[in-house]
Write a structure and sequence with these properties.
The protein has 12 helices and 10 strands. The protein is of the alpha/beta class and about 260 residues long. The strands form 2 sheets. A 6-stranded mixed β-sheet has the order 1-2-3-5-7-10, sandwiched between helices. Strands 4-6-8-9 form a 4-stranded mixed β-sheet. The N and C termini lie far apart (about 40 Å). The structure holds acetoacetyl-coenzyme A (CAA).
Length: about 260
């Protein structure tokens, strides 16, 4: 594993996946997400594991999909690469997943946390879908899951402006389960995991599946729609300008083309 660290028994019955690309604020490139997929598949089959915690570092859970890897792609490239099909494993995982979030959880990073089952946030956590600022839109569930989690008006505001939600606001809107001081983040996530790990793993799996069924009815159609629109933005000059401007650390100029 190049970009993640997996600890099978972080605590008895509790596995930890740490996203580990700190210099790039854990930007989610395709290799990193393939490693996450493989780790989740293995942990799901591992009988000694009851609950999985996924975390980043103090600065960032993840600052989004890797812009540098996507910037010059065409809409057809994006459609053919279909990078988010790898991400589908997160929601296919049968065991419960807790995201322990400090710092930035933006774009694909925010979408990643929302694909987990519960979120514990540190006081420094910042959630957002800033794709609009780089000439594109969320592509890994943001328009669907954020809207369901915090309601249409707030989701519109965040997705159309790229503003961030503080940890406190995220808690207020029901996006996260609990907010704790940074130094308590892993302790709190483990406490939650320990409680769940004591329950019947069969009942836990069935309950998770049933909750997701209530939450995710009609989600598939919405996700497919969002994914196509996300790929479609790569046919625009504005997406090229937005991502290039990010890379060159300047303000973008959008032409609507
Ligand atoms: N992709 C690639 N590299 C990224 C990145 C990303 N999403 N986010 C940060 N980085 C890199 C920066 O380019 C920088 O690298 P260099 O040192 O080589 O220049 C390094 O990480 C540190 O970042 P900054 O210098 O920008 O740090 P900052 O503290 O000044 O700003 C930030 C932090 C506000 C998070 C800023 O980095 C930022 O805006 N990042 C992009 C956020 C974003 O737009 N995310 C959405 C991506 S698209 C997406 O996710 C699509 C989807 O739906 C899946």
């Amino acid at each position: 594993m190049e970009f993640i660290i997996v600890t099978e028994q972080y605590y008895p019955g509790i596995a930890l996946i740490q996203l580990n690309r700190p210099k790039e604020l854990n930007a989610l490139n395709r290799k990193l997400m393939e490693e996450v997929r493989d780790a989740l598949q293995a942990l799901d089959k591992n009988e000694g594991v009851r609950v999985i915690i996924i975390t980043g570092n103090e600065q960032a859970f993840a600052a989004g999909a890797d812009i540098k890897q996507m910037a010059d792609k065409s809409a057809i490239d994006m459609l053919l690469i279909d990078q988010f099909s790898t991400w589908d494993q997160i929601r296919r995982t049968k065991k419960p997943i807790i995201a322990a979030v400090s710092g930035f959880a933006l774009g694909g990073g925010c979408e990643f946390t929302m694909m987990c089952d519960m979120i514990i946030a540190s006081e420094t956590a910042k959630f957002g879908q800033p794709e609009i600022k780089i000439g594109t839109i969320p592509g890994a569930g943001g328009t669907q899951r954020l809207t369901k989690a915090i309601g249409k008006a707030k989701a519109m505001e965040l997705i159309l402006t790229g503003r961030f939600l503080s940890a406190e606001e995220a808690h207020f809107y029901g996006l996260v389960n609990k907010v704790v001081p940074v130094e308590m983040l892993m302790h709190e996530a483990v406490e939650l995991a320990k409680e769940i790990a004591q329950m019947s793993p069969v009942a836990v799996q069935l309950a998770k599946e049933a909750i997701n069924r209530s939450f995710e009815t009609q989600l598939d159609e919405g996700l497919a729609f969002e994914r196509k629109n996300f790929y479609l933005t790569f046919a625009s000059a504005d997406q090229k300008e937005g991502m290039q401007a990010f890379i060159e650390k300047r303000k973008p100029t959008y032409t609507g083309k």
